[in-house]
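In practice, a research group might receive sequence data for several interacting partners and want a quick structural hypothesis before committing to experiments. The following worked case mirrors that situation: the sequences arrive first, and a predicted assembly follows.
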Amino acid sequence: MQQIPAIDLLKLPGLRWLGRWRYARFALQLPLFALAMLMVWDGLTGAQLAPKNSATVIVWVHYRGFLMLALLVVGNLFCMACPFMLPRNLARRIIKPRFKWPTWLRNKWLAAGLLVLFFFAYERFDLWASPWWTAILIVSYFAAALLIDSSFQGAPFCKYVCPLGQFNMLSSTLSPIEVAVRQPQRCQTCATKDCIVGRDDQPGCELWLFQPKKVGNLDCTMCLDCIHACPHDNIGLLARVPGQELISLQPRSGIGKIEERSDFSLLMLVFTWGALLNAFGMISPVYSFYNWLTTQFAITSETFLLSVVFILALVIEPVVLLGGAAWLFRRISGHNERLIAIINRFMKGFLPIGIAMWTAHYAFHFIIGFWTILPVLRSLLAEAGINFSWMPVTGLSPLVPQAMIYPFQMGMILLGSVLSAVITWQTTTTITKQRQRWAWLPWALVIVAMAGSAMWLLSQPMDMRGILEG
Amino acid sequence: MLFRYGQLILLSLMFLSLLGCSRTPSDDPRLLMSLEQTPNAMGIQTIVLVINDGSTPLDNAKVQIEATMTHAGMPSQIVQMQALGAGKYQASIDFSMLGEWVLIVNVTEANGAVMQRTLPAFNIQ
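A structural hypothesis for the assembly, expressed as tokens:
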């Protein structure tokens, strides 16, 4: 029986231009670049009250919510239209990078560290409440992308540095589309491999993903380079089963086996446990905890208190849970790998619950605060002499009735938990044939603990203030 | 090469010049404002604002108050305050979420003069 070909977004009317037009990505980047410039200008010179400034409203309310929803509904649209790449691409027309990214940095250790640093800075400097710091963050992204990619060949910023990109690429493992080969047999006769080496002035994949051997969305920024480089028009944006790549054990082009890479495990750990930590920073119990810490240690340093919380959430808790589960798994199954190797194999199974938590959290802000852009927009337009006084500035309702938000969040967590359970079960049955159900149980318990924590966090009243002001 | 570095320096200077700019007017120091009691609990609360022009209570002004949180994403409440006399104005605000709030006061005096003041942030616990 002939296999039904997957739906290809690039064959849909209205989207064909993405695959055919060489400047498609540029056209997508341009509006986001203009928006980023507006936010930098407003963040640095405008009202320094977060709800009155486009930098804080767009970045922390709209961008984050839209990002997660887009990742789950379509794919990694932000990386596709990434504005940070625009000056970098223009600069590369003048400056050809001379250096190769150091071998010892060709992994995810740095990116995982930067992701932790970003989460820490978010809490320490109250980024969500500071237009100025938000603008500086955007400028830093532009500067880092420009500096790194102007010095080093390929796209090391996206692949090895950008914390935002790592976040998007991990989340896109559950996306329903991926950049993939349309007809694999066509690639077998291809001698030029333009998708990776490039053709004429069109670069190939700068993240070193060779299409015929590429698996899933990890490390793919959907930049469309391979699509434009392929002379056989054999690469598309194909529909797939979300999460399918988390079950695959194939070696991935440009990555290898994520199940054997501790750097990837650390990145996934930071992403997943960071989802719980980020939500914990926004509820009332965190202030009681800070106060308790202050009385215990007689130290009021914000950096110290935050460090304690971060060490508990990103080191001690996962080490205890994952280490305990791996130890029990080994005892039950008789598997003889080291604990760290076992954790590496199971780590990808926790991505779905992490993605679910980020979505539940960011969707909350997106739904509640969607219309809060109107007063900001009205004020900006008024500055430009355009009177939009009919635009409402008060009495702005959530996008959907508030009563629907919590059930939606619970649904996301349950869905993420089920997917995590399926993937860890699949991993268990692949690794061991001994007492599979019992061997899977420790991992299932970790998932239950995480789901319980997520549900508890989402049920708490939100509380946003400076760390020691309570 | 020198030209390229020149461009980079020029761009950096343009960016740095933004850091010193501000498009928002600073608060008018002429009027003195204080809350009789700073709100501190969730729910609907009546707040009383005292406004003085020097040592004289400011009466016969139109006072509008905007309550918002210090982070983005929560819709503001804008309420017209009711004059109580002796420079006092009253309004009810629904402090619907825990966290840091600010009140932005817009005053239109009887002579048509307009001013805005952002009161110090406070916590609703």
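Before designing any experiment, note the following. The interface with chain B takes residues 40-41, 44-53, 56-57, 60-61, 94-95, 126, 128-129, 139, 284, 365, 368-369, 371-372, 375, 383, 393-397, 461-466, 469-470 of chain A (CB under 8 Å). Chain A has a mean pLDDT of 93.
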